[in-house]
Amino acid sequence: MRCQYACGSDAHFSRRGFLQTGAGALGALGFSGMTAVSGAEQLASQQKQVVVFWLSGGVSQLETWDPKPGTDTGGPFLSIPTSVPGIEICELLPHTAKQAHHLSLVRGVNTAEDDHGKGAYIMLHGHRQTPGFEYPQLGSAFASLLTAPENPLPGYIHVNGGGSPSEASFLGPQFAPIGLAGGKPPANLALPDGITVDNDRRRRELRAKLSGRFATGRRQSETEAYNASYDQAASLLARKDVFDFSKITDADRERYGKHEFAQHCLMARQLVENGVTFTKVTHTNYDTHSENFNFHIEQLGEFDRPFAAFIQDLADRGRLAHTLVIVMCEFGRTPRINHLVGRDHWSKAWSIAVAGCGIKGGTVVGKTNANGTEVIDREVNGGHLFHTYYRAVGLDPTKAFWHEGRPFNKADPKTDSIHEILA
Amino acid sequence: MFSLLFLVAVSFGLPGAIFSQEQPAAPAASVEHPALSFARRDLTRWTAQVEVSVKTVVDRQAALDAATKAVADAKAAQQAADNAVVDAAAAITAAEQAKAAAEKALADAVEKKKAADAAKTAADAKVPVTEQGVKPATDAKAAAENAAALVQQQLKIAQERVAAIEKGPIKPEPAATRLLNTLTHDRPVIACRFDSLGNSLFAGAQDNSFHRWDIFSGPMVHQPGHGSWVGAIQLLPKLNQAVTGGHEGKLTWWSDLDSTPKVVRIVDAHKGYLRAIAVSPDGTLVATGGNDSMVRIWSAVDGSLVKELPGHERHVYNVAFHPSGKFLISGDLIGVLKQWEVGPWTLVRDLDAKVLWKFDAGFQADVGGIRAIDFSPDGKLLAVGGITEVSNAFAGVGVPAVVLFDFETGKQLRVMKPKDNFQGSVYSLRFHPTEPFIVAAGGGNGASLWFWKFEEEKSFADVKLPGVAYDMTLHPDGLRLAVAMFDKTLRIYDMGPTIESPPAPAAK
Amino acid sequence: MADNPLHQPSSGRLMPGFILSMAMLASFLHVAHAGAEEPALRTQIDRLIAMQTADFDKLAAPVADDAEFLRRVTLDLTGTIPTSTVARAFLADQNPQKREQLVDKLLASPEYARHMQRQFDVALMRRLPQKHVPVAEWEKFLRESFAANKPWDLIVRAILSSDGSDPANRGPARFYLDRDGDPHVITKDVAKLFLGVNFECTQCHDHPQIEDYRQEHYYGVSAFFVRSFVMTDKEKRVVFAEKADGEVTYESVFEIRDKISKGPKSTLPKFIEASAITEPKFNKPEEGYVVKPDDKDKELRPIPRFSRRAKFAEFLASAENRRFCRSSVNRVWALLLGRGLIHPLDLDHAENPPSHPLLLAHLADQFAAHKLDLKWLLKEITLSQTYQRSSRSANAEINPSDATFARALLKPLSPAQFAWTVMQASGEVDAHRIGMGDQATEQALYDKLIGYENRFVQLFGGEPGKPPITFEATADQTLFLSNDPAITFMVKPKSGNTADRLQKLPPDNIPAIAEELFLSTLTRLPTADDVADVQSALAGATGETRTAILYELVWAAISSAEFRFNH
User: Fold this and answer.
1) End-to-end distance of chain C based on CA atoms, in angstroms?
2) Cis peptide before B83, with omega less than 30 degrees from 0?
3) Do C210 and C217 meet the contact criterion of CB atoms below 8 Å apart?
4) Residue of B333, B288, B341, B289 whose CA lies nearest to B313
5) What does the H/E/C string look like for B407-467?
6) Is the pLDDT of residue A16 over 60?
7) How far is CA A398 from CA A133, A301, A411, B365, B382, in A?
8) According to the model, what pLDDT value does residue B148 have?
9) Vertex B230 angle, CA B226 and B235, to 5°
10) Which of A200, B131, B171, B205 has its CA 20 to 30 A from that of B377?
């Protein structure tokens, strides 16, 4: 019997028998045979890509996707019509409003978790943290399931954020995020001064020969992993143009905006166009406990134009059809306006927006009451959302990951996809 | 295995006893013919055999009888079983009928119970509903009594104030500031102005209306005239009108201020919030500032646009005319003050109040701004207020501050802060019209009125408020002030000298 | 005052494997003792290793050659590789005792103390960030202890009895204070580190799979710490103080869930299966104090008459504590051999028996008998044939499992080892040594080059509090090794470094160039294939091109899989 209880130890599982511990530890990389995707299914979804816009701190649903103007909770902003008759969003998103026919608004999210870390965990894993179960994050999961084996690029890139190898969990370090902190390309992508491409090729050939001779007659799992990291680095180096953002045109910079987030959206567009499977763009920060409205004017003022341009560009270039775009964060914000004219953390009734691959654009699902204090129709949680993301990119969320004989559900089996918004 | 061993042991243990080769000796006497002995033996044996055979016949007969009986018995049993099956089937049928009847009875009973429960629930509900009626009635009566008492109290205070002033001139005593009256609303109140006679208090709130309270008779009038919150109010005394600015960017003129205000005109003044309004000392011009980073000048009389003043890079938070009427000052989110010359509308200079602003790198946002502004009556001093030393941008943690300038030189004289370690922001400030002090209102972690002397950095009197004050207005008598508050009230405070025991009106 | 619980008959369940192995060991050693003199531990190790595996001789890799041994033992005992000069001299040395002499020399070096300090710092502190005690003071305490070869029980006792109140010796208090005195964190870590027990699950319930690990055991250990707390004293020092009262209570979350709990339980302090300690009773609470706590004086550090924590240090870190000795020798064994006899190190229980029970028991006995002398233990192990086996089997068909110890395992270099090995192989250390002349002490070189070590630790050392437990190779690490200016700076020819030495050798003497290259970087002589590679790389190259190729050669060696591991 496997332990199913929460006590924070991986010692419950055979993993510890497999990996080693202590000083001078060794151990095989444990990421083979964990996927349960059939060949055909994988083939069908290999062209699919995903972009997450992470509005760090928790954007207000009332100032974005579910405005309640004129009510006691509505705040000072008006709602505006969009490109879809009957759907209105907050006036702070005029450009996004013109892309509403691509968007689906999920207005009945209830994740019941008002802590930043735990809320983020739910939104990025589809369920609450279960101590002892180290689930991969959405980015690593999609990177592993959607990336074609011959794709030399990292499967998961986080623009304007870091990335911990632990996000990939048992899927292995090649599916961990590569963080472009501050929107900068990965370090050390340029060859050292005075080292030409020829020098680089020669030195790698020499190292490969030496390493090959060493491996004979020895235990090889570690040496193979080490050598593979050089291959990975070499292919990254060969495609470093993907990270060369200097070629973005002035016209694009003008259209998206000059500020950092606009640049990050352009980077994301470049990464998507070059075939990076999963791109996450973090925009900070929306944790507006005071001055909610002033800060949302500022932050959404940054978000609106480049996000809309990003959607428009993907649509114009035919990429939106196979790129799933998700706008989310750890939770929404309280309908109640506090004494500092702020809004606090609120997970009971909030919204996210999705667009693109597999999504029926121009739709709204879920409904909150008149002043947004509770969901009154089609309530969903992280589980529903994850079922929906997987279905949207053509993967079966009911097929678990298998790791060391143990299933790891991709989405909570007690929930199902939001079929109304699936194309 | 065991027995075999035993046999082996036995056979080997007694050699000769069984397999002995020696035969015993034959008996000696033999007189009869051997055949006779055989015949006799045969006779004996056959006799015996007859008996055996007869017995066998008898036995067989008995067995036959037994078998026959067994068949009969089995047949009987079969018949009995058949009967039992038929009986049982009949029993089942009977039982099923009984069960159906019982189930129907149960269902009926459940239905009846449900109906009874529903009736009880309805009955239960009715009692509190009727009881609910009692409470509002009781409360209304209490409120009326309270109001009557309050009126009595206010009357007494007014009598005392008259008596005091008749004895000689009186001055405000900031440290003695106390609550005089509380006016309530159903949303947080964000802006307020006394009219020039001090009879009415005009207010904007977290709704889309313009509100008027008669401070004596109490009840408010609210008039729609905006598309969003009304955050700025100024009076046009010569026209007997008021102008209000809304977060939707509109500027609205109002007449009939003594009764039910009516919209005179509405002008699209700014894109985004209209944050501030100032009226020129001669009453002819209205200046506004807003989130489109613009300052605009309007004719107070006809609402026409007189001038547009671009130059601010961020949201304009406040505007103020110099008492001489020669200059206008505008201040923005990032602490930049611009001085404009009235008439030609040229930019005279910038003043630096960046101490009231911070770009928070962690949150990637600007925090602060020129939240309050006023000139001293003689025009020599300019004060702006807001928040400084911000340590947590998104929780609004910082120190309320007023920056005082010598207007002629543009020199920053000092940054004034509360005497205690209050955390929050100044939202409004006024120079007293006759006495040398500045009063400011604000809040954050708590709420307060602060009083500063011009030459001191620390406030000399702090008066705690029961909720954050978003705006403040001085009564024309120079003794009273009103604050617009988060707790859905307007509160009127008395700065005048206390007479005998201080009044403590039970504000509710 | 308190009876040593380790002297008392056990009330709990003794580990059956342990009883069995002791009985067998006694009989085995009886046979072995038929001669007069007890054989050296190194001999016993080889005998007990071989005895455990059928056909051991067929599986066993040959004994490593001098070069492989030199690199391995230098890395294991000093955290870096030898210079080409040292390597050349060792290979040429004809003295049959040279391996033993080498071990003695390494154990006496200042590099040994520094390396042990680093290894045990990571084990004991998990790279937890500094909180109340400067890391440098903690490191100094460890380094000086290893340099003086202080017995292991005394080192541990110093750590576990330190409360930070002695301003001259706050280093060891980092163990408690930088865990913020959290009794749960401390309980789990002391169990893992010194008792070989993983207590993760047992805070909330009996271990669902390991019968030996019970919640009662967890709270028995926790009870030693439940009265302790972190406070700031009058001198504004953060110290680990203790009260005279306070008991643990616990309740199984399973029993609560299943509604069969009989309510919270408590236990006196005890070590796993040993019986509880006895402690003095006081009639009034205040009698329990030498210095009474004062509610009005929050800076007054109370001092109890009877300190549970002091008893913990005394009873735990002792040659008489069998579990402590077992887990300690197991840890040292794993440091040198790359795998514990009990594996993983913190899962010592009946259902996970040691791979070599007799050997583990004998090592523990002998370690105790030699007063927990670390240098003696390290020397005996490193001079065993078992330690000295090659990591390469005689032929590729032979593939013994790790747990047989029939072939040396590949141990990935720790971040610090990797840093210093790169610096030594590239000749960065040589260049500094030349530049500093007489001043080039171990400490001086360390101070000069610590920046590089820090960069490696940052990139290879995992998250604070969670050093990686498996070998990981990520693209950012490899890009660093490939392209970072710091690495290029060390590898490119410059006065006194390896590439520089290669450049100064006669260009046509390829064997000499190859020899210097391989001795400097991989601590071995080149094979014919290696020489051929060097030959073809350098063929016809002159001037700038040749300089670039020398860089490529040194880089290729440093980035090779052979270099990345201690093999």
Assistant:
1) 51
2) no
3) no
4) B333
5) CCCCEEEEEEECCCCCCEEEEEEEECCCCCEEEEEEEECEEEEEEEECCCCECCEEEECCC
6) no
7) 18, 39, 7, 42, 68
8) 80
9) 100
10) B205
Q: What is the pLDDT of residues B49-67, one digit of tens each?
A: 666 667 777 777 777 777 7
Tell me, what amino acid is at B362? G
Among A338, A351, A326, CA closest to A288? A338
Q: Do A337 and B188 touch (CB under 8 A)?
A: yes
User: Is B363–A287 a contact, with Cβ atoms under 8 angstroms apart?
Assistant: yes
Which residues, 6+ apart, have CB-to-CB distance to C171 below 8 Å? C133, C137, C138, C139, C140, C141, C142, C162
The tokens for B366 are 């600007």
Distance CA C216, CA C208 (A): 14
Q: Which of B55-69, B210-224, B494-508, C46-60 has the lowest mean pLDDT?
A: B494-508
Beta-carbon separation of B468 and A57 below 8 A: no
| Most confident among B55-64, B461-470, C277-286 (mean pLDDT) | B461-470
- Please state, in angstroms and rounded to a whole number, the distance separating the CA atoms of residues A297 and A286: 11
- Cβ pair A233:C478 closer than 8 A: yes
Q: Cβ neighbours of residue B245 under 8 Å, at least 6 residues apart?
A: B230, B231, B232, B233, B251, B252, B269, B270, B274, B275, B276, B277, B288, B290
CB-CB neighbours of B290 under 10 Å? 28
3-state SS record for C66-108: HHHHHHHHHHHHHCCCCCHHHHHHHHHCCCCCHHHHHHHHHHH
Q: What average pLDDT does this structure show over C257-281?
A: 87
Q: Which of A174-183, C11-20, C32-41, C489-498 has the highest mean pLDDT?
A: C489-498
Residue C423 has pLDDT above 80, yes or no: yes
| pLDDT tens-digit map of C344-382 | 999 999 889 999 999 999 999 999 999 999 999 999 999
List chain B domain ranges: 141-186+355-508
Domains, in order of start, for chain A? 46-185+244-421 (3.40.720.10)
B261 CB within 8 Å of a chain A CB: no
H/E element holding B492? strand B489-494
Q: Which tens digit of pLDDT belongs to each residue from B426-459?
A: 999 999 999 999 999 999 989 999 999 999 999 9
Predicted pLDDT at C204:
83
Task: Report the gap between the CA of A288 and the closest CA in chain B (Å).
Answer: 5
Q: Which residues contact A205 (CB under 8 A, 6 or more apart)?
A: none
- Closest Cα partner for B387 from B339, B333, B431, B338? B333
Higher pLDDT, B498 or C307: C307
Share of chain B above pLDDT 90, in %: 58
The whole-number average pLDDT for the span C153-181 is 95
Alpha-carbon distance A78 to A81, whole Å? 10
- Spell out the residues 6+ positions from residue B281 whose beta carbon is closer than 8 angstroms to its own: B321, B323, B324, B325
Q: In what order do the strands lie in the sheet with B327-332?
A: B316-321, B327-332, B336-341, B347-352
The structure tokens 């859905």 sit at B488
The residue to which tokens 């949207």 are assigned: A392
Structure token pair of residue C374 = 């670390």
**Interchain contact A32–C (C-beta under 8 A):** no
pLDDT of residue C25: 52
Three-state secondary-structure class, residue C549: helix
The more confidently predicted of residues B296 and B45 is: B296
Query: How many whole angstroms separate alpha carbon C223 and alpha carbon C225?
Result: 5
Q: How many helices (H) and strands (E) does chain B have?
A: 2, 30
**C556 with A207: Cβ contact below 8 A:** yes
Q: Which residues pair with B366 in a beta bridge?
A: B359
Q: Which residue, among C231, C229, C225, has the nearest Cα to C247 in the 3D structure?
A: C225
